[in-house]
Write a structure and sequence with these properties.
The complex is a heterodimer. Chain A has helices spanning 3-8, 33-57, 76-86, 98-101, 111-119, 135-145, 166-169, 198-209, 211-223, 229-233, 298-312, 334-350, 374-386, 388-395; strands at residues 92-96, 125-129, 153-158, 316-321, 355-356. Chain A is α/β, with parallel strands linked by helices. Chain A has a domain at 65-188 and 259-395: SGNH hydrolase (Rossmann fold), CATH 3.40.50.1110. A five-stranded parallel beta sheet of chain A has the order 2-1-3-4-5, with helices on both faces. In chain A, α6 (135-145) packs parallel to α11 (298-312) and α8 (198-209) packs across α9. Chain A is globular, with a radius of gyration of 27 Å. Chain A starts with a helix and ends with a helix. By secondary structure, chain B is an all-alpha fold. Chain B has two domains: 30-197, no CATH class; 204-481, no CATH class. In chain B, α4 (77-116) packs antiparallel against α5 (142-157) and α9 (243-274) packs across α15 (379-398). The chains are: A alpha/beta, B mainly alpha.
Chain lengths: 397, 482
């Protein structure tokens, strides 16, 4: 090659000389560009495929009266999976808090169960209530894990319990702890009682949007007692002096690839449970509630947004304003309660949203301010089924 | 804002592209400084005043020192004036650190003395003199940026570096966000030239930076956080633990603090490299050290070099008339300083830790240099002995009180060995970490470095997956309290 030709060749810049004071490291793994590309591809594949494959491989049995076990209430990935299973053609999904889930009753004593009984088709109404949820959490759940419910017929529960005090409404000014913080809005609207740093808030948003991370939580909740694997290996049994049963256990052996069934008998629930008694028998008395007006209620706003989300996804929504235990409201406090329920009713009517507001049940049918007992659910289902608005809604589509 | 948190990832995602966009303009340096101030100010904006104080103070003293008429004769007015300004700078730099770190401790002890001798006077708590409701808390990174600024003044005095004329460059040197919180402690001679012009855009900086960041994240979130659960449980109730638990917790703490601090250093170096800057190496397989001196050449290297250059060497020079004893005394004083610097809440445990290392070094300094030790004592014995000593010292570093530390030492020898509550996974992690490091100091090193690209990528994926499963929160770093 001539000298002139050599001169015209592009000059490659010399490789930088390693700074003697700052070598790369004594033993750190050093990836080049190709390796980072391979890394990125593998991570994307794992993040996208592993949860989907897992869903196919892990056994998840549900019967007609299935409801998410209380121990899995934080497992949003699994709840999303139940939504997917529940969203069969012809099935009606009932979404709500512990009133729908059935706080004091067995799976065959819940409202969805008795609605199915009334309809004559076992399992027609799927219990998609989650114990410990509230409208702000339900909003996050539906937004992020409820896409499988698209175009489904849905009964959405409205419960004024969440407006009985600023604390319940999460609009009180004092910081407090509450459940399911990973589901509530992290930035807007601002939740005054929610006390979390920026990292926690962003982490919650990231987890909702990267399904792989929700799946990691699923593994930890389902197989490792709601702990990270390292925490599980060092967990004690709660005895004094403590024992550490997992110190030498192989974490992989915990993964049985089967969602554990809820206990056959739950001592805290059902007609045989000591909790399953009318409210006045357990020492509860009528209360004076510090009602939060609808226009200031964060929970009511969350409910409205959830409703809008469901309707935008093509869901045929019927709002069920569950009958609050009016007997437990002090006499002089009832007008405020009626203002709230009247406001809800008016707003739903104004927006032409199908809704029903069954009458309050007799006092003996409630276990507390909002949860009916088994007989109460049976009666409520009967009442609902007898309502022409409900029948008309059932016949639609 | 810590490296292993989401806000930092967002900060980086904004600052990094903007930095490269501004690279060819005059704004790159002001932008970098503004980014560093935002990064630091997110912790507590008031403490930025302290950063500004240290920056302006040292910059101004640098100007004064460099303008003194030069007279090369020792003892001439030039030297006397320079040393005056140097000491002025040292005191002005040190007082905020001393105030925030030790004022409460000294007040409490002085008040106890006053009470003991029946003097009806009590010093107020330092928090009462804090203005504008600023909390009396140790500002994060104060030691690190103070030491860096001090090294500038001392190196200037020693004639090792030229005075930095550009205030922006100097301000970046004092508060460069990757190393402002926990180091590595940089020297002006190494760092200031890097602020003269932005580094060229090189893919290698990105790949290396990300590699360092990933491994640092893994060390912190997967390894250090796990070991911490076990160590905290044992060290919070040492009286309830048997000898095996105490021994394993002590060894685990050695690895916890290594993974925690070296993980941070890796992340700091990785982030700096993304911007084209090189920070010095801070850890070099310290638990493979074959002597206490060797340990300090491998552990927190930027700090040990700092105390060696600015405390040990002047003391050794001062006591050069008694060569052996002078060196030994200089080592003890130097590591006493190290212990005092580490003081955080508890005082005496860190002092004992520092003194143990000081006396250990003084006692083994000659031995370590001897031909017999170097050639005839098997490496594994030297490593085991060094690790045993370092672990013994860690007991005092980690224990809540001296009494706790002594109880742990006692129980290691007398407590029962029955029913040991030790975790298999912890033992596995420690053994694997050791094997990994040992392999890198053998002839296998090159083989490991030559691993195929697919293998390396697979390993990185594995690290991320393990990270996802093992991460249990975003706890703070141990050295953030110093």
């Amino acid at each position: 090659m001539s000298q002139a030709a050599t001169k015209t060749l592009p000059q490659t810049p010399p490789e930088p000389v390693e700074d003697p004071e700052s070598p790369f490291g004594p033993n750190e793994m050093r990836l080049g560009a190709k390796q980072w590309i391979a890394f990125a591809i593998a991570i994307v594949l794992i993040f996208l495929c592993l949860p989907a494959i897992w869903q196919k491989l892990e056994r998840f049995d549900t019967g007609p009266d299935y409801r998410i076990p209380y121990s899995l209430s934080n497992d949003y990935w699994q709840i999303g999976r139940w939504f997917k299973k529940a969203a069969e053609p012809g099935r009606i999904v009932v979404i709500g808090d512990s009133v729908i889930w059935g706080e004091y009753v067995n799976p065959d004593g819940t409202l969805p169960h008795f609605l199915s009984v009334e309809s004559g088709a076992p399992g027609r109404f799927a219990n998609c209530g989650v114990n410990g949820f509230f409208p702000l959490a339900i909003e996050g759940l539906i937004d992020n894990y409820g896409t499988a419910l698209r175009n489904q017929k849905v009964i959405l529960e409205a419960d004024v319990l969440w407006m009985t005090s600023p604390q319940r409404d999460l609009s009180a000014s004092k910081k407090d702890t509450f459940n399911h913080t990973r589901l509530v809005p992290q930035f807007r609207p601002r939740i005054p009682v929610y006390d979390a740093d920026m990292n926690e808030r962003i982490g919650a948003v990231v987890e909702r949007n990267i399904r792989f991370l929700s799946w990691v939580s699923h593994i930890q909740i389902t197989y490792f007692d709601q702990k990270s694997i390292p925490q599980w290996t060092l967990a004690d049994d709660g005895q004094s002096p403590p024992n550490y049963p997992n110190l030498w256990r192989n974490p992989a052996s915990q993964i049985t690839m089967s969602i554990p069934d809820p206990p056959a008998t739950d001592p805290d629930r059902g007609p045989k449970s000591p909790r399953h008694v009318p409210w006045f028998e357990s020492g509860k008395e009528p209360l004076h509630y510090d009602w939060v007006p609808l226009d200031k209620s964060l929970q009511w706003q969350a409910f409205q947004r959830t409703l809008a989300t469901l309707r935008s996804r093509g869901n045929d929504v019927m709002v069920l304003l569950v009958p609050f235990n009016e007997h437990m409201i002090a006499e002089d406090n009832r007008p405020a309660f009626r203002t709230i329920t009247g406001g809800i009713d008016a707003w739903l009517a104004e927006n032409k949203i199908p809704h029903i507001a069954p009458a309050t049940l007799p006092p003996t049918f409630y276990a507390d301010a909002s949860h009916p007992l088994t007989e109460g659910y049976a009666l409520l289902a009967k009442n609902i089924y007898a309502m022409p608005e409900f029948q008309q809604w059932l016949k639609q589509r | 804002m810590l490296f292993h948190t989401y806000p930092f990832i967002i900060f980086l995602a904004i600052v990094l592209p903007l930095f490269y966009l501004l690279r060819k303009t005059k704004l790159w340096l002001p932008f970098l400084l503004a980014s560093s101030y935002v990064f630091y100010g997110m912790l507590n904006p008031w403490f930025l005043l302290l950063v500004l104080y240290i920056t302006l103070l040292n910059y101004a003293i640098g100007i004064v020192m460099s303008r003194l008429p030069f007279d090369p004769e020792p003892g001439a007015p030039f030297y006397r004036k320079q040393i005056f300004w140097l000491w002025l700078g040292v005191f002005a730099d040190i007082w905020p650190l001393a105030f925030f770190k030790y004022a409460r401790f000294f007040n409490e002890n002085l008040n106890a003395v006053f009470g003991w001798v029946h003097i009806p006077f009590r010093l107020p708590d330092p928090s009462v003199i804090m203005p504008f409701g600023i909390p009396y808390l140790l500002p994060a990174g104060i030691s690190f940026f103070t030491f860096q600024a001090l090294s500038y003044l001392i190196d200037l005095y020693l004639g090792k570096i030229e005075r930095e004329r550009n205030l922006l460059r100097f301000a970046n040197f004092v508060c460069f966000f990757p190393n402002v919180l926990m180091g590595p402690i940089e020297r002006a001679g190494h760092m200031l030239p890097q602020f003269e012009r932005p580094a060229a855009f090189r893919l290698k900086n990105f790949t290396d930076g990300l590699s360092l960041f990933l491994i640092g994240l893994f060390k912190k979130l997967a390894l250090a956080s796990y070991l911490q659960i076990f160590v905290d449980r044992v060290y919070d109730n040492p009286g309830d633990c048997g000898a095996p638990e105490l021994i394993l917790a002590t060894i685990a703490f050695g690895w916890q603090i290594y993974f925690d601090f070296s993980g941070y250093s890796d992340m700091a170096r990785g982030v700096a490299r993304l911007f084209g800057f090189n920070l010095v190496l801070n850890f070099n397989n310290p638990y493979l050290a074959t002597g206490i001196g060797d340990f300090w050449r491998r552990w927190h290297m930027s700090f040990s070099r700092w105390i060696l250059d600015y405390i040990f060497m002047p003391l050794q020079l001062m006591w050069r008339n008694w060569p052996s004893w002078g060196t030994a005394a200089a080592l003890v004083v130097t590591f006493l300083f190290s212990g005092v610097w580490h003081v955080a809440g508890v005082f005496w445990t860190y002092i004992v830790w520092g003194l143990l290392h000081g006396f250990g070094l003084a006692a083994t300094n000659q031995l370590e240099r001897s031909k017999y030790y170097r050639k005839n004592v098997p490496t594994w014995i030297k490593r085991a002995g060094t690790f045993a000593f370092v672990s013994f010292a860690w007991i005092f570093f980690r224990a809540h009180t001296i009494d706790d530390a002594l109880l742990i030492v006692k129980r290691i020898f007398i407590a029962p060995w029955s029913n040991p509550h030790i975790a298999g996974l912890i033992i596995a992690i420690i053994i694997l970490a050791w094997i990994y490091q040992i392999l890198h100091e053998t002839r296998w090193r090159e083989t490991l470095a030559r691993t195929s690209w697919a293998w390396s990528a697979a390993l990185a994926v594995l690290l991320v997956v393990i990270l996802c499963f093992s991460s249990s929160g975003s706890g703070a770093f141990i050295y953030l309290q110093f």
